[in-house]
Structures are given as structure tokens and as C-alpha cells.
Amino acid sequence: MKIVAICGAGVGTSGILKVNAERALARLDIEAEVTAADVGSVAIAAADAQVILTSPEFVERLGKTNADVIVVQNYFDVDELTAKLEGALG
Amino acid sequence: MLTLPDSAILLGRDARDWRGAVLLAGEALEAAGLTEPEYGPRMVSMVEEFGAYIVIAPGLALAHARPGPDVLHSGMAVVTLAEPVVFGHPYNDPVSVVIGLAVITADEHVGGIAELANVFNDPTAIERLANAGSIADVRALFRGSE
């Protein structure tokens, strides 16, 4: 299982998203590799990803993907991330 | 934790709009010797290019740009606004706390980011930070997660 967190620079916001996604996955007892990447490299970074986590601004920039795209509102809300990941993966 | 010098903490400042708020974070990073003056405008450019995605939680913007030669040391700044400003985010406006983040490389700050996440996993943290009356209040909030 591969999950990619996407933001503009690949530092900062996607890092927060990665950390909290890992916490959500631990709660769900799901093993997955979570990486952070910038939107410019999404085609490569997410080529074999099952899930892309990102904010509303980036959805249209993602282009074609086979991954489930999860739009996150509050990056610090592990409950929100847990519910959305459970919905996508469960 | 990423370094947060006293000189990088600005409380109750006035910003006309989101650009002003992000540039305050740039001034704070520069005042603390973490970045050169060019870094603030580079953080503004990220929002101009990609939108208000840096508003990652209700009331909080994590301003940052890519690593570059204008980053002298990795670290962060905290700016609280006397009056919140709108960034144009669909869910999380208006913003009263701006965290400015500057890193030398994309990977070496992962531990610091995890600690930052710890602080704000507490749903009351943003409001408490917005209302912080002193540098000591800010420090207590960040220490509380350690």
C-alpha cells in the first residue's frame, strides 16, 4: 500500500499531512508507506500509489490518476484523516 | 523541535491582507537571522501560484517556500494577528495565526514537523496561540507537547 501526500513545495504542509496520515493508519491498523511530494512531481511520485492525500487547491492539478484522491480540510485532525482513509481503504 | 527564536515571535500584529500576514512571517524569520529578505516574497509566491492551501487548519496558515539560498538556518516563526485575515481557503478562513517555516533541505526537518503536528493535534492549540499574550505563553504551548 502506497499513499502520497501532495502539496506545493513538498516541504511543510505535505510533511504535516504525512505525519498525521501515519497516525491515522496506525489507529486503523493498516500498513502503508506514506511519502510527501510536491504537485509538480505528482505524476512520478503517485504513479503506483493507491491513495493521494491533498488539499482542495490541488485536486484539479493532479491530472489523471488511478489513485483514490482524498481531500483533507484540517491537516491536524487525525479523526478526519482516519475516517477518510477508512472510507477509501476499508 | 525546529528552532523558534524569541525574535521570530510577533504577537498581535496588524496585517491588511493575507500577503501582509505572510510577509510578517518573512520579517520574523529574517529578524531571527534564519532567512534573507527574499524569503518572505517567495512564501507569498507559493500562495499566488497554488492558492490558499497553506491554510491547513481553521485559523492557521503554515507559510513556507522551497529550500533555497535565502534560507540561512532551518527554523520557524510565529505571527499572531490582531484581526484575522482572509486567505481564500474554502474551509479554514479567516486566519489569525501564521507559522513561517524555512528549511535548508526537504528531508532534514521531518522530526521537527512531527513535533509541530503534536502541538496542533490538540484542537485548542490554535485558539490558545492566537490569544497568546507573551512570548512565554507561546513557548509554554510549544513545550507542552514535548
From TrEMBL, chain A:
Please name the Pfam families in this protein's record: PTS_IIB
A GO BP term here is: phosphoenolpyruvate-dependent sugar phosphotransferase system
> Which Gene Ontology molecular function entries are recorded, alphabetically?
protein-N(PI)-phosphohistidine-sugar phosphotransferase activity
Q: What sequence ranges are listed for the domain PTS EIIB type-2?
A: 1-90
Superkingdom assignment: Bacteria
UniProt keyword terms in alphabetical order: Transferase
Protein name, please?
PTS ascorbate transporter subunit IIB
Automatic annotation (TrEMBL), chain B:
Q: Which InterPro entries match?
A: Ascorbate-PTS_EIIA_comp (IPR051351), PTrfase/Anion_transptr (IPR016152), PTS_EIIA_type-2_dom (IPR002178)
- List keywords of the entry alphabetically: Cytoplasm, Kinase, Phosphoprotein, Phosphotransferase system, Transferase, Transport
GO BP, one example?
phosphoenolpyruvate-dependent sugar phosphotransferase system
Keyword Transferase, does the record have it? yes
- Show the stretches that span the lipid bilayer: none
Please give the Gene Ontology molecular function terms for this protein. kinase activity
Q: Source organism's superkingdom?
A: Bacteria
Q: Which SUPFAM superfamilies match?
A: Phoshotransferase/anion transport protein
The answer to whether keyword Lipid biosynthesis applies is: no
Q: Which residue intervals define the domain PTS EIIA type-2 in the entry?
A: 2-145
Q: Name one GO cellular component term.
A: cytoplasm
Please give the Gene3D superfamilies that the UniProt record associates with this protein: Mannitol-specific EII, Chain A
The subcellular location is: Cytoplasm
Role noted for this protein: The phosphoenolpyruvate-dependent sugar phosphotransferase system (sugar PTS), a major carbohydrate active transport system, catalyzes the phosphorylation of incoming sugar substrates concomitantly with their translocation across the cell membrane. The enzyme II UlaABC PTS system is involved in ascorbate transport.
Specify the protein name: Ascorbate-specific PTS system EIIA component
Write down the species. Subtercola boreus
